[in-house]
Design a protein that fits this description.
The protein is α/β, with parallel strands linked by helices. The protein has a single domain, classed as Rossmann fold, CATH 3.40.50.150. Strand 7 and strand 8 form a beta hairpin. Helix 2 packs across helix 4. The structure holds S-adenosyl-L-homocysteine.
């Protein structure tokens, strides 16, 4: 089989796995099918682009496991008129998925070098409805609020950051992983109603932490990680083969 055919076969296998695992929203499946995940990861891992695993993207961060991206996106119940805020641009992959489903994505990343790479990629892929900035996403994006949907792709320790709650529109949904890394982490869905907020727990996960402030820039190039790569830490907790370093 040619490399292109092998990659297409892996992609089909992945989509089938997502369907079997409860991803029923065809617009989400179609977005996963159409966004080329191989473009969002370092060359070293190209062969694993369509495995259902998280992969390192530098700076100790990871591109999320496709099953988690699909589950969180499905839980967001996105409409094509929605304005969506993402915290944790990382590789830009989740943003690219969201961009296919909504009107505009605003995405914030605290590691400027990761953001520069993500921006260049999104431009190359001609995805034009994503606006990004390097900042502390825990503060949200006041100038663009309110948001119909908010997705946080790093784990808050205990509670959703207050500014993010404030920046949700009425009827808005936020999907956010919460819990300390060593303890159990879960994805939660927070819904804003006329009277306040409701919150339900969706699934166990393990995410990199949501950290304050913009990261300092003295670490090595994200494209050329040193010999010891940190293992993916962004995956479904019920998949034991992915656990640990
Ligand atoms: N959505 C990404 C996954 C990124 S991993 C993707 O599809 O590739 C989580 C990202 O959140 C990391 O890049 C990390 O630097 C970022 N992050 C953590 N805390 C943050 C904060 N307070 N503001 C913005 N980004 C943050």
């Amino acid at each position: 089989m040619s490399p292109a055919n092998a990659s297409a076969a892996r992609k089909i296998r992945l989509i089938m796995k997502l369907r079997r695992s409860g991803i029923t929203d065809t617009s989400v499946l179609s977005a996963i099918e159409r966004v080329p995940r191989e473009e969002f990861i370092p060359d070293t891992f190209i062969d694993q682009a369509y495995e259902d695993i998280a992969l390192p993207i530098g700076r100790g961060q990871t591109i999320s496991q496709p099953m988690i991206v699909a589950s969180m996106t499905q839980a967001l119940e996105i409409h094509d008129r929605h304005k969506v805020l993402e915290i944790g641009t990382g590789s830009g992959y989740q943003a690219a998925i969201l961009a296919r489903l909504c009107r505009r994505v605003y995405s914030i990343e605290r590691h400027r070098p990761l953001l520069d790479i993500a921006d260049a990629r999104l431009k190359d892929l001609r995805i034009h409805n994503i606006t990004t900035k390097a900042a502390d996403g825990m503060k949200g994006w006041t100038e663009q609020a309110p948001f119909d949907r908010i997705i946080v792709t790093a784990a808050a320790s205990a509670e959703p950051p207050e500014p993010l709650l404030d920046q949700m529109s009425i009827g808005g949904i936020m999907i956010i992983p919460m819990g300390k890394q060593k303890d159990e982490q879960f994805i939660y869905r927070v819904t804003r109603t006329e009277d306040g907020f409701t919150c339900d727990r969706l699934m166990p996960v393990r995410f990199v932490p949501l950290l304050p402030d913009v990261a300092s820039n003295h670490v090595d190039s994200p494209e050329k990680p040193k010999t010891k790569l940190r293992m993916p830490t962004y995956h479904s907790a019920d998949d034991p083969q992915l656990v640990g370093a």
